[in-house]
Amino acid sequence: MRRVLIAALTATAALLAVPGGAGAAPPRIVTTHVDVSVVDSFFTQLCGFEVRFFNVGTFNSKLFVDENGTIVREIDTFPDAKAGWSSPASGRSIVFPASAKLVTEYPNGTALGSAATVTGTGLSAKVPGIPADAGIAVFAGHVAFIDPDGVPIVAFDQLLSIRGHSSDPAVFEAAVCAALSPG
């Protein structure tokens, strides 16, 4: 289940942009509508048919700056976002609320390559037939690029810790393939 939590949080962060901090000026809020569907190569190979990961909805990024105007923290929320997997072959989908919250700390600012620590809390996935996976995951990462709205996009480099409910990966993976199977 760690793979799913990591994948869900990574996809969400990549689609969003992960910023952070507290400072002198009031936070700047950036709202982005996302409607993305990409081939999930892991599940496509595992299931033996095309599987797509999708994320649709509104992403809100609240950027906090220090007294110099440098982004030091970001809080990302997804008030109406939905995520999941679909199979074009079967027409079936697994859909769940993308209700995680991401908090990113930038101890050295947001220049490309700068270190970041991302904490994700909430629901990471819900697949039919097994309990929802939810909890807290902490990642070390780095600023990979800055989006056109000035929001840092963070690449997740390492899972530092995870707490909460995680299904056995083999059980989770089998449940995804079964739910999306063409027959």
Silhouette:
elongated
Q: Could you give the distance between the termini?
A: 25 Å
Radius of gyration: 17 Å
What proportion of the residues is helical, as a percent range? 10-25%
Structural class: alpha+beta
Q: Sketch the major β-sheet.
A: 9 strands, antiparallel
Beta content comes to over 45%
How many structural domains can be distinguished in the coordinates?
Answer: 1
Which spans of ≥5 residues are poorly predicted at pLDDT below 50?
A: 13-23
User: What's the count of strands?
Assistant: 9
Helices and strands, in N-to-C order?
A: HEHEEEEEEEEH
Enumerate how many helices there are, as a single number. 3
Mean pLDDT value: 88
What does this structure look like?
With 183 residues, the chain is α+β, with helices and mostly antiparallel strands. The protein has one domain. 19% of the residues lie in helices and 48% in strands. The protein is built from three helices and nine strands; from the N terminus they run H-E-H-E-E-E-E-E-E-E-E-H. The chain has helices at residues 2-16, 41-47, 169-180, and strands at 28-39, 52-65, 71-77, 82-86, 93-97, 101-105, 115-125, 133-146, 152-165. Strands 1, 2, 3, 4, 5, 6, 7, 8 and 9 form a nine-stranded antiparallel beta sheet that branches. Strand 8 (133-146) and strand 9 (152-165) form a beta hairpin. The radius of gyration is 17 Å and the shape is elongated. The two termini are 25 Å apart. Mean pLDDT is 88; it is low at 13-23.
